[in-house]
Amino acid sequence: MAEEKVKFGAPLKIPGWVNYALIPLVNLIAALLISGVVILIIGDNPIEALKVLIYGAFGYPEAVGYTLYYTTNFIFTGLAVAIAFHCGLFNIGAEGQAALGGIGVGLVCLYMDWMPLWMIIPFAMGAAAIFGAAWAYIPAYLQAKRGSHIVITTIMFNFIAASLMTYLLVEVLIDPNGQSPESRPIIETTWLPYIHEVVSMPKTPLNLSFVYALILSAGFYFLVWHTRWGYEIRVVGQNETAARYAGISPSKNIILAMMISGALAGFVGVNEIQGVHHRLILDFTGGYGFAGIAVALMGRNHPIGIFLAALLFGALYQGGSELAFEMKSINKEMVIVIQGLIILFSGALEHMFRPKIEAIYRRFAPARPVEAR
Amino acid sequence: METFQIIVLLLDATFRVATPLVLAALAGMFSERAGVVDIGLEGKMLGAAFAAAAVAAVSGSAWVGLGAGILTSIALSMLHAYACVTHKGNQVVSGMAINIVVAGLTPTLGYAWFSMGGQTPSLSGDARFKSIILPFAESSRDIPIFGYLYVELISNHNIIVYLAAAAVPICAWILYKTRFGLRVRAVGENPHAVDTAGISVDWLRYKALIMTGFLCGIAGSYLSTAHGAGFIRDMTAGKGYLALAALIFGKWRPVPTLFACLLFAFTDAVQARLQGVDLPLIGVIPVQFIQALPYILTVLLLAGFVGKAHPPKAIGEPYIKER
């Protein structure tokens, strides 16, 4: 075939499966190996731990439900971080944006609960998106117009969001009949339907927002690669100067990308508040925002990759709680270690294995017909 | 007289809070002036705090703990260098990875080694840095104003507070008056020029990051063995990020950075005093708002409402020889 002919001396193109499957896999294995060393240091058996982890994540129907429930959150935050990455921005603020999204969902479910479910679902989702996007808007504006570094501002906004959340739950929204800082429960007519109510499976927190996350993933693909908006965002992310010459406004797209990012992160609130906890609680964001960085990096900012990475993290979270339960010296923080190591290997050290793997591939690549000169 | 006393007590608290910020910000200065972004200050401090507390608890000596803290922090800093300098990885991602790994690793190891819910045993005696009464403190107490200032404000801090105070001029001297400092500044502005002069860019950045690790190690050890008495989960609570913000606000220069740190620390000292106080006109400010004050202040300051910052030119970019 004509396409397969390459110019003499042209570098061999590395096929997609090496780039998108083999390299992430090698990075994951490296992260798991180091985690295994940590488990050895604290005096447990890493092989045993891996077995417990996998069984805990996929071994029985409830486990699968829980894994997918965690996966939902990671899809949301993974997509959130990824859209910012496409624009060349590093959104560390998904944690805070998720918290704000939760406040939005909580307010709708608490004070507009006279609505029937089919009406409250779009309202709650809209509130999550608007609150999350608004929380991302300020750092985005400051980055675009005032040049303050988005990494620092979004970190600060995480802390401010945590304070705001505490204030609201301690002083304003607290359940008058309760002691702990949480709101009154939202009434049952506003709850998102559980998947186990529709499909026959054991009772798990898995709810409608999982389906929603899948739809959003498809929408993400369409937005980023098949619309003008997505194109402009990617151009700004690749080369701001080129974008400016092409008549694309970097500041407009920075703000747009960050607001989409914030909205996506806000949907964690839908899953957690409307889907599972059914009341506003503190710290429901549980580190999903930070894990989103790892998910986006591993998934190479592509929805399919993000889904697979989110599934991996969902399994790590669910299997990790099982692990903390089963093995005496391991607690839940072990999962954070693995998460950090994955960010390290697939993000910071991405150039460590890549040249070697590519070299090996080139060496053993099938011979190709070379175009005559 | 009472207002005077309150101010002195506020300043006293400011010094205590400012110490880790100053040390961490100076640490960040070496890294960033050499052209390597370091948002991993937080993780390095946390790692050092844990190592210092753990080793001090086992060995019974704060100094051995400090050494362990410094070594841990340097090791993490070298990891950052390995990722960002040797393998030219994304510096922000690397820093974040270090923060997350340490945030998970410290409670994991603490839980496994001490089984106290991720904390280390509380330290006492020689395992902590104790306050030092400076000479003539007692005899000068009767001197009006000056004596009070000397006794309450200057004297009676632990050694690391004085170390931090001394670190500012020392670091300024290193950065501006030594060959190493000149090269660090040059490599952050124009690494190609440094390379052309026959100096290894990579090795220079490694050396700068060793300095970063060293200073961050002292900052972290201070938190667990001098300011506190043992390691608590997430005890840095954003101080690394605040230090970085102070560094940016201080325009990457030692003395303005010191004042930025003092400002943040003063806000913190004020917030501790403001809690539950009924202010005229405003009433009681919610605790959570006051606690968020340093972070809000950071956002406002970084938004350039106090003049624009000019970062080192080559910051954040891995050095690639042929371009």
UniProtKB/TrEMBL annotation, chain A:
CDD domains: TM_PBP1_transp_TpRbsC_like. Its main location: membrane. It is found in: Cell membrane. InterPro entries: ABC_transp_permease. It is a multi-pass membrane protein. The chain crosses the membrane at residues 21-43, 63-85, 97-114, 120-138, 150-170, 206-224, 254-270, 276-297, 304-320, 335-353. Keywords: Cell membrane, Membrane, Transmembrane, Transmembrane helix. It comes from the Bacteria. PANTHER family: ABC TRANSPORTER, PERMEASE PROTEIN, GUANOSINE ABC TRANSPORTER PERMEASE PROTEIN NUPP. This is ABC transporter permease.
Automatic annotation (TrEMBL), chain B:
The keyword Transmembrane helix applies. It is found in: Cell membrane. InterPro entries: ABC_transp_permease. The chain crosses the membrane at residues 6-27, 92-114, 159-176, 279-303. CDD domains: TM_PBP1_transp_TpRbsC_like. The keyword Membrane applies. Pfam families: BPD_transp_2 (PF02653). It is a multi-pass membrane protein. Its main location: membrane. Keywords: Cell membrane, Membrane, Transmembrane, Transmembrane helix. This is ABC transporter permease. It comes from Sneathiella sedimenti.
